[in-house]
Design goal:
Elements lengths: L11 H16 L6 H8 L3 H7 L3 H25 L5 H18 L1 H10 L5 H27 L8 H18 L8 H15 L5
Helix pairs in contact: 1-2, 1-4, 1-6, 4-5, 4-6, 4-7, 5-7, 5-8, 5-9, 6-8, 7-8, 8-9
C-alpha cells in the first residue's frame, strides 16, 4: 500500500521552522532526524539544506528566537511600571506566565534541549538567558535593599519564583477552568509570599 507524500505547507523557511518545532516537541532533539524535519515540512533534503546547515542550526534558531522574545516581553512589561519593587516583580511574573502559556512548545523545547546546543552556541545564548535572569535578580535585590521584601535568602527566592513561573509551560491547559488572568494573579501572590513582600 502506498502512502501519500506530505503536502508542502508554505514557504520553505517557515515550513522548515514549523516542522522542526513540532518534531523536537514530539520526539526530542536526538529522536529527530533531518529527514524527519524535511518530510514533515513537505520539502526535499536539498531544499532544507538551502535554508539551514542541519539539525543543530534549527535548534539554535528556535531557542534563540524563543529566548530573545521572552527577554523583549520582560523588558516591555517593566517599561510599563514605575520603580516600586513589588509592582516590578508582579510585572515580570505576568510577562513570564503569559509567555509560557502563549509559547508552551517553544518554552518546553528550550528547557529540555538547551543541553543539546553545541558549546559555542550555548556560550552565546547563555549570555542572553543570563540577561533575563538579571532582571529578576535586580528586582529582588532592590526590594530587599529598600525593605520592601523581607526574604532572608534573595537568590533562593528568585530561583523559586522563576522555576514556578517557567513550569507553567509544562502543566497549564488552555482548555481548562483556570483563565490566564487568574493564573497571573495567583502566581503574583505566590511570588510576593516567597519574597515576603506586601500583600
Amino acid at each position: 500500500m502506498s502512502t501519500a507524500a506530505p503536502v508542502p505547507r508554505g514557504g520553505g523557511r517557515d515550513a522548515i521552522t514549523r516542522a522542526a518545532r513540532e518534531s523536537f516537541a514530539e520526539q526530542g532533539y536526538h529522536g529527530t532526524s533531518i529527514r524527519d524535519i524535511a518530510r514533515r515540512a513537505g520539502l526535499s533534503l536539498s531544499a532544507l539544506y538551502h535554508w539551514h546547515t542541519g539539525k543543530q542550526d534549527l535548534l539554535v534558531l528556535l531557542i534563540e528566537e524563543s529566548t530573545a522574545e521572552y527577554f523583549r516581553r520582560c523588558e516591555g512589561a517593566l517599561d510599563g511600571v514605575g520603580d516600586d519593587p513589588a509592582e516590578r516583580l508582579l510585572a515580570l511574573v505576568r510577562a513570564t506566565v503569559e509567555y509560557r502559556v502563549s509559547r508552551r512548545v517553544e518554552s518546553t523545547i528550550a528547557a529540555a534541549e538547551w543541553r543539546n546546543l553545541a558549546p559555542e552556541h550555548r556560550a552565546r545564548l547563555d549570555g542572553l538567558r543570563e540577561s533575563a535572569g538579571r532582571l529578576w535578580t535586580e528586582i529582588v535585590d532592590d526590594g530587599v535593599a529598600r525593605g520592601h521584601f523581607r526574604c532572608a535568602h534573595p537568590e533562593d527566592a528568585r530561583r523559586a519564583i522563576v522555576a514556578a513561573c517557567n513550569a507553567v509551560a509544562q502543566w497549564y491547559d488552555p482548555a481548562g477552568d483556570l483563565a490566564v488572568p487568574d493564573l497571573v494573579e495567583r502566581y503574583g501572590e505566590i511570588a510576593l509570599r516567597i519574597v515576603d513582600g506586601p500583600r
